[in-house]
Design goal:
Blueprint lengths: L7 E4 L5 H11 L3 E6 L13 E2 L2 E2 L2 H4 L3 E6 L4 H12 L3 E4 L5 H4 L4 H7 L4 E6 L14 H7 L20 H24 L3 E6 H6 L5 H8 L16 E5 L5 E5 L3 H10 L3 H4 L7 H6 L1 H12 L4 H10 L4 E3 L3 H6 L1 H5 L3 E5 L5 E5 L23 H7 L4 H9 L3 E2 L2
Length: 397
């Protein structure tokens, strides 16, 4: 038994935020029915690098799901959704606010059909507030939430994180919300709506940003490879052109680090015993560590840092990830077999549970691959299903 066996989930989202949340539930046993547009399906199918016409990303985002293709602009398709909802535990959607309502699928009506239903709604700005109707993507949310301003070298143009981190953070907050609502439902027997905005999921992870501004008027600035206000923590250039990341900001760690690089004067300086004192002299500390690092290769530096238990590492490319034994040992990388018999490496199931660890059970579906089975499951006959497909309301590929 997986931890979420018997949990029935309807996914009406597309691209990243909603589908990632549903994927996480599916990895742990939830029966996820993904509703897609006929013929085209989820746009993610065509994002980034394609294999045989379909994104390899699709195999990560939609594994363990079933696909039904419905034209939700049609009343009959909306009625099918309502039938699915009556038997579901969770509905996940990440359309712009008002979209569900326009299809006659507003949460008030859905909760009347199924009072135990938990509805996760992810959008750029949330279901309320003056910006609710604005279109919102992760890149905009990351900026509004405070992250983009900090991701730069001082004085340079802020850059985006290289993945859709705003969408993923919103997804994970959504999963937390679902699990909280399921726990509460055990007590009350009632469902509820979870309203997640992309920007506020980012904002929730911004640590001391707001209280520092509130207390001191401090606007935190971009720190490049350093972590402003915490020292020493930076990337240092090595003799081979690589960088070693050193997090020597713990008090005892700092003393070990300084001793190892031959700077006992700094290790034993009372003014540097605590972080506030080190921050005041961070440029001096960075020079000392940088002078030491540039005389050694990345591997040599890491070996020495490991020998005195100083947290350190290198900057991984995906090639480094794919060849690293630790990723393999922890099941972070799994090989799946595609329909054509080829192998594809994909991220494994995370988080790790000791008794019910989750699994990759099925490949990501083709558009409408499970349409017939799902419609039969709610009582439609073969003749009714054929009629829906003939009229373009449902689709199977």
């Amino acid at each position: 038994m997986e931890p979420l066996d018997n949990l029935k989930v309807i996914e009406m989202g597309q691209l990243i935020a909603g589908p990632f949340a549903a994927k996480t539930l599916a990895d742990f046993g939830a029966d996820v029915i993904k509703i897609e547009a006929p013929k085209t399906g989820d746009p993610l199918r065509k994002w980034r690098l394609l294999k045989d016409g379909t994104s390899v990303w699709w195999q990560v985002q939609s594994r363990n799901k079933r696909s039904i293709a419905l034209d939700l602009r049609q009343v009959e398709a909306q009625e099918i959704v309502k039938k699915l909802i009556t038997e579901a535990d969770v509905l996940i959607e990440n359309f712009r606010p008002g979209t569900l309502e326009g299809w006659g699928l507003d949460p008030i009506h859905l909760l009347e059909l199924n009072p135990k239903l938990i509805i996760l709604r992810i959008s750029g700005y949330g279901q309320t507030g003056p910006y609710r109707d604005k279109p919102g993507f992760g890149v905009v949310a990351e900026a509004m939430g405070g992250l983009r301003y900090l991701t730069a070298e001082p004085g340079r143009v802020p850059v985006r994180v290289g993945v859709s981190i705003g969408d993923t953070l919103a997804s994970l907050h959504g999963v937390i919300g679902i699990l909280l609502a399921l726990q509460e439902r055990h007590r009350s027997g009632q469902g509820q709506v979870i309203d997640i905005a992309l920007y506020e999921a980012v904002f929730n992870c911004m640590e001391s940003l707001l209280p520092e501004y509130s207390a001191f008027g401090e606007v935190r600035q971009a720190g490049g490879s350093a972590l402003p206000g915490i020292a020493p923590s930076n990337a240092y250039l090595c003799a081979d052109g690589g960088y070693v990341l050193v997090a020597g900001n713990g008090d005892s760690i700092f003393k070990r680090l300084m001793g190892m690089i031959g700077r006992d004067d700094l290790a034993n300086d009372p003014a540097l015993e605590n972080n506030d004192g080190r921050v005041a002299r961070v440029a001096e500390l960075d020079r000392a560590i940088g002078d030491w690092a540039k005389e050694r290769t990345t591997d040599q530096a890491l070996e020495l840092l490991d020998s005195v238990a100083v947290p350190a590492g290198k900057i991984y490319t995906v090639a480094d990830i794919a060849s690293d034994p630790h990723f393999r040992a922890r099941g972070n990388i799994e090989a799946i077999q595609m329909h054509d018999g080829s192998k594809l490496d994909v991220p494994g199931v995370i988080p790790k549970l000791s008794r019910t660890p989750g699994s990759i059970r099925t490949l990501a579906p083709n558009i409408g691959q499970n349409t017939d089975d799902i419609l039969r499951g709610i009582g439609l006959t073969s003749a009714q299903i054929d009629s829906l497909k003939e009229r373009g309301i449902a689709f199977t590929k």
